[in-house]
Amino acid sequence: MKKKIIIALIVLALAGGTAFWYFVLRDEKLNVGTKNIDSSQSARDVEEQSTPDGTWSIKQQNDVFAGYQIDELFGGASVKTSAVGKSKVVSGTFVVDGTTISDGIITVDTTEMKSDKPGRDNKMAGEGLETDAFPEAIFKQSKPVTFSSAFAKNEEIEIEIPGTLTLHGQSQEVTFPLKATWDGKVIKISGELELTLSDYGIEAPDSSFVAVEKQGFLKVQLLFLLKAGSSKKSSTEDTTTSTTTPAVTQTTVSQTTTTVDPYGY
Fold this sequence. Notes:
mainly beta; eight-stranded antiparallel β-barrel; elongated; disordered N terminus
């Protein structure tokens, strides 16, 4: 069977040429980074702050998302490519108080997870992630994280946030490695977490033509704006006339041609 599949792949590749590569075997990567986020429009009317203290909330826009990257195996693992998908429907908040980050929560609408193949997305509704049955993925910070020094403007820092990841209706304790930058107006966060599908009760799709690896990555690229009324002080305030600042109110708020279709559609 494996030999027949390999021969079929070769025949299809010779017949379809570039189209076969582009629509079937194209290898993709979901690259995330704080520098990939354009905050110029979202931050246009935002007042610059002297500290990042306050409650921060996700701002949805085209380059803000949570997504997946996982390898697909064709022809009995003879050919390996990466499949990626992302949802731009992401919400969440966290609190900064001096050198401490707390109360972080991120909610992802998995029904909005889109890739470059509608067949893959349709199949995911009832198999794999089963987004029809489990329409949300949630990461909730389990305890505050304190740093040796506070955020400095335009300096990227690396942070590890402990918490509970609920995916496919099952929860696991994880530590999410992230990178963050604050420019006085917004906070940008990116990171990726390696996952084992079986830890969340996910059965990797498998057929005679294509199979999915048992491990993959959850990736995020997020933009946060300060919630109105939660900041301690703006950079334009006269710091000589006030020696006290109000306490931060901490609240938890809560991814055609038709040469071949390996997904059976």
